[in-house]
Structures are given as C-alpha cells and as structure tokens.
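TEACHING EXERCISE
Course module: macromolecular assemblies
Task: Read the component lines below, then compare them to the predicted structure of the full complex.
Student: A.B.
Group: 4
Components provided:
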Amino acid sequence: MLRCVLHMDLDAFFASVEALDDPSLVGRPVLVGYDGSRGVVCTASYEARRFGCHSAQPMAMARRLCPEAVIRPPRFDRYQQLSAVVMDTLASVSPVMEPLSLDEAFVELTGVQTWMGRWAEAGAWIRREVRSATGLACSIGIGPNKSLAKLACEMAKPDGLKLIEPQQARVILDPLPVGRLWGVGPATADKLESLGIRTIGQLRSRPVSWLESIVGRQASGMWALAHGLDDRPVEDHRKAKSIGQERTFGQDVCDSAALRGILLWLTESVCRSLRGRELLAGTMTLKLRTSEFVTISRSVTLTAPTDSTQRIWEAADGLLGQWLMAGMRPLRLAGITLSKLVPRQAAPGMLFEHPEDEKQRRLDETMDAVRRKFGDRGIRRAGSME
Amino acid sequence: MKLVCDRGALAEALGTARMVVTGRSPKPVLNCVKLVAEKDRLVVTATDLEIGMHLSTSKADITEPGTMAIPADKLLQIVRESTDPTLTIESEQEAVHIRGQDSHFKVHGYSPADYPAVPAFSGSADFVIPAGTLGRMIEQTYFAAARENSRYAINGVLFEREGPKLAIVATDGHRLALTRTVLEVAQDPGSQKSIVPPKTLQLVLNLMKDPELEIKVRIAENQILFQLGESSVCSTMVEGNFPPYRDVIPKELDRKAHLLRDALLSAVKRAALLTNEESKGVRFSFTEEGLVLSSRAPEMGEAEIKVPLSRFEGEPIDIGFNPGYVLDALKAAHDEHITIELRASGKPGILRTGPDFLYVVMPVSL
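Instructor-supplied answer key:
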C-alpha cells in the first residue's frame, strides 16, 4: 500500500490566538513572549516576520527590528485549550496521530483514503474544520513519509495545502539547500557547504561512504532523506507521559525566597494542567540550572498519586530545601515536571479524607474555577511569583 | 566471655535479630547485635533505636559470662554457613573467636558499652493475650497499613483497648482491616490507644512459636512492650492521629452475598491474570444465580469466572474491585465462610468472616 503522512502546523499559533481574542491586533505585528532582557520570542505574527522577527529570537532584538510590534506574554492555558480542539479534529481523521507540540502534529493517512476520499480532500477537510472550530488558520503538507510531509507543509505556509507525490520528491528536494534536510543543523550545513555541497541534489549525488567520512553515523539517515526516503513511523504519543513547565529568568535569580516564589507559581500552573486533564501524578521532578549551565534534576515519588497543589508543592519545597542546604547559587532556569501520570478515574477512591486534604481539594477547585473565569492571573497563592 | 552454643538456636535468634538490625546504619555499633552470656542462658539483643528486642536461649553452656557487640550480618553468615552442631564463641577484648570442628573465625566487634540500651519488659502487663489470638489478629490487619507517611498516622497499626475489648485496625485509605477480641486477662480496666509500626508486629509474629503461649503487653508513654516467654520486644509508637475508623465502616448495606472463601480466592486470582496497570479492576457481578467475575486487559484479552453463591439477598449489582485488595483480605480470612455486603457500585463494600474480622474496601470505577 502506498504510504501517506500528513503534517499539520498552525500558522503563527500563539500570535494568531492573541489576535483571535483581541481583534485590535489583526493585521499588526505581534510578538508573543516575555518582555525582559533575557526573554525570547515564542511566536512572531506574519506581520512581524516581515521585519525579520522570528521565534527563538531574543525579545530585545525583535523589538529593535520592529519597534511598533505589540508584545504579549504567552497564555499557555488558552493555547492548550485551542490545541486540544485541533488535535481532536486530527484524531477524528486517523487513529494514528503524533502531536509534536501544541501547534504541530503528524497524522498517518495510510489506509484512510478508503473512507476519506482522496488524501488532499482529507487535508482540505481538516483545514475547514480547524477554522470553523477555532477560527485559526493552519497549513497542511501531505507526502509519502514524515520528512516530505513536513517539507510540503513548510511550502504550503501560510494558510495553504501542499501535496508531494512520491515521484515528485527528487525534483522538489534537489534544488533546496542542505539545511532544509531534517537533522542538518547550521554547523553541519556550513561544513557541507565548505566542501561544495550546497543543495540536497548535490548531497544525493555523493556516495554514502563519502558522507559518512564527513558526518559520521548520521550519514545513512541523511542520505536516505536526501533521496526522499524516510520510514520512521508516526508515533502515537497522545497519552501524556509528563506535564511540566520551566522558566528561564531574565536575570539570574540569586535569592532563595524569590526562587521559592517562582517554583510555587510553576507548581500551581502544572497542577492546574494536571487537574484539567483529570490526571494524578506519581512523581515530581525539580529542575534547576545554574548560571554556569550546570543542570540539577531531582525527583521524588509522591506518597500516593495526587493532583493537590499543596501536596505537590510540599514535595517540591522539600527537594528545594535539600538543594539549598549547600547554599543558594545563582540560577538561570527553574522547572517543575510531573510524571507517572494516571487517570483520576483509574485511581481507587478514598475511604476517608484528612480534613486538611479536604480543605486543600476545595481550595484547588475554587482557584481553578476563578482562573477559568478571570484568567491565569485571576488568583494565586500569596507566596507565588510569576 | 566464653560459651558453647547450639548452632541452630543461634542461627534462628540471629535471623530474627536481622529483621531489626538492617546493617545500613552509618553508626557501626548499630549494625551489631549484642550478645550477653549470663549464668545459664545467652541473650541476643538487637535494636534500630526504634524497635528493640531481647531473645533468650538456654541452649548454651556458659563457661565465662560476659558481653560483646558483633556485626550482625557477618555473625549470621558464619553461623548459617557452618556445619557443626555447636559453635564455641569466645571474646578477646573487642574481637570474637568463633570455632567449629575445622574452622576458626576471628571477627572484630565493638565495645558493648557503646551499644544503646534496649528496655526490657518490666512491671505488670496491661493485658495478656494468647499468641494464637494475637497472631491471627496481626495477620488479619498489618498488611493493610499504609507504606508511606501521610497526614494521618496510618503507616502503623492501631491497638485500641477498652477494658477487656481489644480492636486492631489498619488502613491505607483505600481499604481498612479490623479485627476484634475479648481479652480474658486485662489487668487494666481503662482504655488505651497506640499505633504500632507494622515492622514491630512482623517481629512479634516471627517470635511466636507456641500458640498457647500467653503474651504480655504493656503500653508505657510512647512505647509498647511485648513479652513472649523468655523474649521481649519493645517499640516506639507511630506518632500522630489515626483516622476515625468507625465512621469509615459503611452502614445500611442492602445486598449480601454468602460464599466460600477458597472458591472466591481462586476465582479472583484467575480473573486478576487479565488485568494490567491501565485496567486494574475486576468486575464483580452479583445476581441470585451467582457471582461472575470479569476482567479485561487492553491488547491482551479478557476473562470470565463463575463463582457459586450460597445465598444472595438484595438487588443484583455490578461493582469493580482491585483484585489485590480482595486477595489480601481473603488470605487473611481464617474462616471457610465469608460474606460480602454492598450498597452501590461507587460505594465501599464490606467483607466479613467469623464474628471478629471485617474488611472495608473502596471500589474502582470500571
């Protein structure tokens, strides 16, 4: 059977959501990200991209390039909410789907055309459904494998649909710069270019043994991709293995009280996601990165799988206390991750609840409700710092 | 100190001592057992500072009384691996010589003066209970205690006595095991509550040889002491509050099934074969025709087992239980006949056997 993979990418997702919720932003350059000396752009709207702004760029640089840009801090809750709707749409097309991030996913279409009609029709249907369900534009690429589907999607952007047939693969790949190949980073691209290999076609004309002497073990995979060959499966990761959030600081955090406040904020945030997905966590991991780029990761098994902010915070605070025993060191990043997730439904019920746990459960429910109504900043614990 | 000791008796005493001395203490003397040679007996003492025990054997000929502290692990290995019927143990300052017919070990020990004091049973007992009864009560409860700390002190087993009435209770929040007895000898007319670490009770179980033996129990401040013949166990209690367990026992259960323990035990074991991490529950479908257990493990398969009921009262009901929780109770039930009482699929059920044992278990959603 002919293989067929679809790649979907929401156009300028975070920025589009901001414009969706605030129509005054439509048509204006928008940058989503934290505005600080070390903040980076999460998403730039297409209007901002015209000025040279792009994601992962330092916010300060983006502001210089486009001083009139509107800067908005990210609202991950809202993005998650819309992403879930989009992912549900994709899941309704094929049982095998691999989300790569909130705004990007692969769908295995092999065998699906029997009921969806032709593949391109499946793509068009998804684009219509996503727009009507969320108001967002997405681009779709369809190809005989993952890398060609992703490439087709890049070519379709913005707001388009592109199908690469197997026999077109080489014609399309050959003139592209080698940097467009999956897994070829800037360093490898520079190295290949210095040897006279600028395009994928030039790479393809060389024997794999030659490539091996340049890039080592990656050679055979890279060579296959240059031929338009890629047999990696679409992997269904819909069952979340972990929920986490981390924060890179604008300036190194040197104060343990401030660090504690930030971790409490992160804990509140991940616990809220956990409850939103009706999951309980069995393990909590604290991640800290010092200004010297030393990363420390410490995990603790929770006494019983839980979704209580207070219980998870007690665990996080305990780990933090242990780390602080050796003295506070300047930090550039802190994060909280929850794993060993189990559906709340699957956990056995409790015969009794300690009055304190009952109080905390009611507190979590109330705070979640306030945030649903008034947003992330609607309510927080007094000690938490965003 | 010098003595000749029966090797089997010593191996048994040291094996029990190893339940207390885990060998993981950073303080070397705490990885030791203390041997005290008295005029006509050898006492093996072990402690981890929370639990302590004195184990006495008369199967020793003491030539020279004395005391020493020796690494428990090494001494047990030597005694176990030896083949002689008796071993000669002799101290030389802080070292100990262990001699068999063809062997001689010299092991370095520690000063017995550094060994922590382990309280012995003294004074009168608060109550006395036959080993057979206490053993049954411990076996029927301690498995249900929580493994970890939580806000309630449920990582211990509750001993609650009101005059001659003794109840032993353990719970991990998902199930609760309760067993009762009426004591024949209760010196103290008042009431007492203490939460005992499960490890202490395992040790007491291990020391019970004769079911007729009268065990003396004394509760003093934050300690509980057990006297079993020549041996004694003392333990600190778990601090904190036990949940109000009487409130947890559901009332007005309008469905009641009577069945045989062994039939259910075998059926639950078989149904549990087709459960996995994702679908841990086994469905119990009760009707007047009988009980049907069904289970399903995604991507593996499914099972259905029929269990005859001696009698069923009430409307039919479907309810899911974690098979492990049900098996724990069935293994602890000493009676042939059991009853299961239920009210609704989402509400806890009760498993009973005999007049003394009751087990409350939360259902799982299916």
